[in-house]
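ok so I'm stuck.
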Amino acid sequence: MDYKRTILVSLPFMAFMTFWSAYDGIIPLMLKNTFHIGDTVSGVVMALDNILAVLLLPIFGSLSDKTKSRYGRRMPYILLGTLFAVLGMPLIPLGDYLYNFPMFIIGLGVVLLALSSYRSAEVALMPDVTPSPYRSKADALNSLSATAGTMVILACISLLVPAVKHPDYMAVFAVIMVLMTASALILFFTVKEPEAVARMQEESRKLGVVYQEDTVSFGGKETLPADVKRSLLGVLACVFFFFFAYNATSSALSKYANVMWGMEGGSYATLQLVPVIVTLFAYLPMAGLAVRIGRKKTVITGGLLLIIAYGALFFSGKFSPVLYVYMSMIGIGMAAVSINVYPMIMEISTPETTGKYTGYYYTASMTAQIITPVLSGAVMEFIGYRYLFLYAFIFGVITLIPLLFVHHGDVMKMEETAPQPTGQMSGGLQENGVSSSYSAS
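replied:
not stuck anymore, here's the structure
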């Protein structure tokens, strides 16, 4: 695998995730403490990004698939999306500082629209330039970069946000703007997308990997065979319920830590940093585990760890150092699930439809994140804050059920990628004993 190329391609995703880390932690505090918005309505506002994502990510993903430019299919979306996001971002902390809700909402809207315009294109760039057998490992490196950015921004929140009643968040958003701008420019000047795609195709041929040209698109004029569609829908359902559980806790942890554990200002970021650090070290081992036992079994393992951690946190009525152990388990579980479900979907796509299938992935994840902040917010407001992790536990269990119906999109074992003479290609990939023409063969 070309590690340098993979890391460079991951840089915009790293910067992208720094914003979402701040978004999940800071925006709920702004809504609650500055604008005095209740938890249920706050959940609606927190779901706006996901509503836009469901509407726009499949559209822009498909558009990027069809885009032809001297800079490639994905690069124009990444550059323009980053530009508009950086222009709108200062309005968010400024609106909060001035108690100006319209300014705050306008800034938030501009940023969310901009990010939705290029998220599918940015994520699809990784499989565009990475041969199929290496995608779990490439996704692990992609996630490593994102986690490193998350660590930086959480550290900034902890250091730059004072424990006062109405802190100024401008410094935190300034760091995000610098990271987003720098990452987009570094990618543009170091990776020539058309050349990188051509190299991937040559590397694939040397590995004996052939991408089927006749794979039909899910949701298009033709349909996938029933068993392949069932696997695709099973993975998408797993993604949906995974984010239904996880996003409920990540988007409300700052408020939960404040109410239940008495953590003020940016101190909650210290606790949230633990799973981020653990996830950082778990990505590559979980990618290696997927090669050994398959992506599906690795996802199940991660799901079980999340369920145990959520259950333990539900019974933790006050702050204790043992919380760091449970948060560490969440970090490992997150790594095991997150780096494998997306490559499973990519195995059912073709090089011509990676953007569209990336849109399907985000449709599932974002739909969950539209509903769960509202529903979990209502649970906290009308039933009690302590039931947040019981909520996550229940949907964590449901996450594993769709995997019973998944039999495609598992890992290609590395021994199946031995270089073959020119013109001699393998006829079909055996995935857990099931031959599939809807993945690399």
